[in-house]
Automatic annotation (TrEMBL):
Origin: domain of life: Bacteria
Protein name (database record): Probable membrane transporter protein
Pfam families per record: TauE
Source organism of this protein record: Gulosibacter chungangensis
Membrane-spanning parts: 12-45, 81-98, 104-121, 141-167, 179-200, 207-226, 232-250
PANTHER family: MEMBRANE TRANSPORTER PROTEIN YDHB-RELATED (PTHR30269:SF23), TRANSMEMBRANE PROTEIN YFCA (PTHR30269)
High-level lineage: Bacteria, Bacillati, Actinomycetota, Actinomycetes, Micrococcales
Length: 251
């Protein structure tokens, strides 16, 4: 493993351990917080390699999410999302094939800023209007395609799909269960693309092996704090840190 491990300064290792911890928390308590992890990985590693390394960690996190919430999913909602998400995954794979590391890094930053903007709009818009069937269908295809694209390019589909699941008015357990199955299926589906594009490397896998313990701790901490943390305060902190990370990647 020492042969394959990338040579990184101590501060980078600390940041990657924190990022892995947040992956665990995002899978068992607070979907979307892994935008911080995305920013950290992309800032420390080459953008494409960071996508592959983080994907493996996300799949490990999906296992913990399924163990906790697998029985609460809305399977009909998942089936309806398949065409849009598949289109997004294909578009994302084509983009990764054509783009260089610099372009991918900038796109990750732009995606994170867009996700923050949509999240802020969702939080503060008027909630009186009821969506029609046509608008619900448009939302499903829009969120599904964007979710597939962002998860393929930057593993940033969490915030996008969380907004869609919230708009679907799922209960807490249904939300977490549906998200658990959605990301487990999508992340496994991304593996062939990622391997074919050379995003998953021996050094990335060696790095993941060192980071998994931090993820496991985060998963258990997430389960413990899910019903205790003040959600509104934590969301503000996550949004601020995500903006900082996105701006860093852009400039």
């Amino acid at each position: 493993m020492e042969t394959f491990l990338p040579s990184l300064p101590t501060v980078s290792w600390v940041l990657l351990l924190i990022a892995s911890f947040f992956v665990g928390v995002s899978k068992t308590a607070l979907p979307g917080i892994n935008t911080i992890s995305i920013a950290i990985f992309a800032a420390i590693m080459p953008a494409k390699e960071s996508t592959g390394a983080l994907l493996v960690l996300l799949i490990v996190g999906d296992i913990f999410a399924l163990l906790s919430y697998r029985r609460h999913a809305d399977l009909r909602a998942l089936v309806k999302l398949i065409p849009a998400v598949a289109l997004g995954l294909i578009l994302g794979a084509v983009f990764l094939w054509l783009a260089d590391n610099g372009s991918v890094q900038r796109v990750i930053g732009i995606i994170l800023l867009l996700v923050v903007a949509v999240t802020m709009w969702q939080r503060y818009r008027k909630k009186d209007a009821q969506p029609s069937k046509s608008s619900a269908s448009i939302a499903r295809y829009g969120y599904g395609t964007l979710g597939g694209f962002t998860t393929m390019v930057a593993n940033a589909g969490g915030p996008v799909m969380s907004l869609y699941f919230l708009a679907s008015r799922f209960s807490v357990k249904t939300f977490l269960g549906t998200a658990a199955w959605f990301f487990a299926i999508v992340n496994v589906a991304k593996l062939p693309f990622s391997i074919g594009l050379g995003l998953i490397t021996p050094s990335g896998l060696a790095l993941d092996l060192c980071l998994v313990p931090a993820l496991i701790v985060g998963a258990f901490v997430g389960r413990a704090i899910a019903n205790r943390i003040k959600q509104n305060v934590f969301e503000v902190v996550v949004l601020v840190l995500t903006v900082v990370g996105a701006v860093y990647l852009l400039f």
